[in-house]
Amino acid sequence: MTVVxxxxxxxxxxxxxxxxMLLAVHSGIRRDLERVEQLAAAVLDGLPAQEVxxxxxxxxxxxxxxxxxxxCLRYCSFVHMHHHAEDVEFFDELEQTNPxxxxxxxxxxxxxxxxxxxxxxxxxxxxxxxxxxxxxxxxAVADALEVLKxxxxxxxxxxxxxxADTARRL
Length: 170
Fold this sequence. Notes:
Helix content: over 70%
CATH topology: Four Helix Bundle (Hemerythrin (Met), subunit A)
Radius of gyration: 19 Å
Largest sheet: none
CATH class: Mainly Alpha
Number of domains: 1
Order of helices and strands: HHHHH
Number of helices: 5
CATH superfamily: nmb1532 protein domain like
Strand content: under 5%
Structural class: mainly alpha
């Protein structure tokens, strides 16, 4: 059996499709995160609860990946689910296709653990807001969302750039 070096493997239709799907999911996560950030700013500025509810209903009905309730729990759940699927399915195949990608996959898995903690912090702050509508509680939600956004966007950018060549050869 002849072993073909990774660099000599051609791109495949399946690999290109998988990478395109990854980019599409990441695009949806980014889009919804921008909308969440706008809503968080409005909440922080004192947007009345009824208007917050109306805005959330609009976001739920218009966003393909929009899985947010007022407390952000569904969005956080979606990101958890996406990262879990990558960890148990996608990353193993990437490493089998290109063993040199091991350090990248290790970093991506570590990023997933960190993002999971940030998602948990968003969920906790959002739950607290439902019990305490103070400025401090609103600030905690906005701060948690900002930290999540910063780390999640950095992660998505790194993943897309780092796995592109390998993913397209799957």
